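Predict the 3D structure for this chain.
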Amino acid sequence: MSVPLLHGILPPFPTPVTADGAVDDTALRKLLHNLIAAGVQGLVPIGGTGEYTALSPQARERVVAITVEVADGRIPVIAGMVSPGFAESVCAGKAFKAAGADGLLAVTPFYVSPTQSGIREYFRAYRDAVDMPILFYDVPYRTRIVTEAQTIADMEADGSIFGMKACNTDMAHFNEVMTLTTSDFQMLSGEDLLYPAHAALGARGGILASSPLLPDYWLRLYEIFRTGQFDEGIAGQRRLLPLLGALFAEANPGPLKAAMKMIDQDCGDVLSPLQAPGELTVERLRLAMDDLRTSGVLPAAQAL
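Done. Predicted structure below.
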């Protein structure tokens, strides 16, 4: 089994849908071609930003299959899997494998509140069942489960996971994971607001919700941090703070889909139970994006 080598910016993109909630194949292909043309180093279909829980299994598989088709082996496709339980997760993982994904981004099992040993055994059994490389998705503010740093290191030692998308906002936890895991552990930031700190502590790149909106800019920031220019990188990331505040003012990907429309990359509306962002959030997005256009972060044609 070949484990993908991940680095750089791997956008977790929203799933384009039509007015009746079906996957919009044309808009999806347009988005994927644009991201690949920008130079992203990987793609992360479905997952939370892709509205995994609102899509049917058939729709999820279609999105992964189209992503694999467009990527055409040029960059890795890591399919996001956020099912809460083992049996459903195995079915999804096998389907994404059959669709051609290079790996899975698998969330901690939630609702049942497992122990640390339960989490470790879950991922060991999951990796064996799907026979695919597993990137661990640590997002305790969604799952309400904190996976201890030692457990993560143990899962790497078991061969259950090869890396991690870090969305635990506890920086001490992040630093401990980096201390306990090996140099081969592929750590990626999952927090747009914490990317400078994650990069300084060893993240190889990011799976960042705002990167489908600003792939060129995030790719430049990645290179700046990668080459150790931290003062410049921090200043560059701070230019995004008003936009990031608006993007995360309501549940993702509602504001992101609204912002994508503003750059002529219409991904449709969010799916139930989410709702379109309110007028105040949309206005914040417009103002933030207009400021970015004025400062040259966004091309003039890509802001309203």
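The two ends are 47 Å apart (CA to CA).
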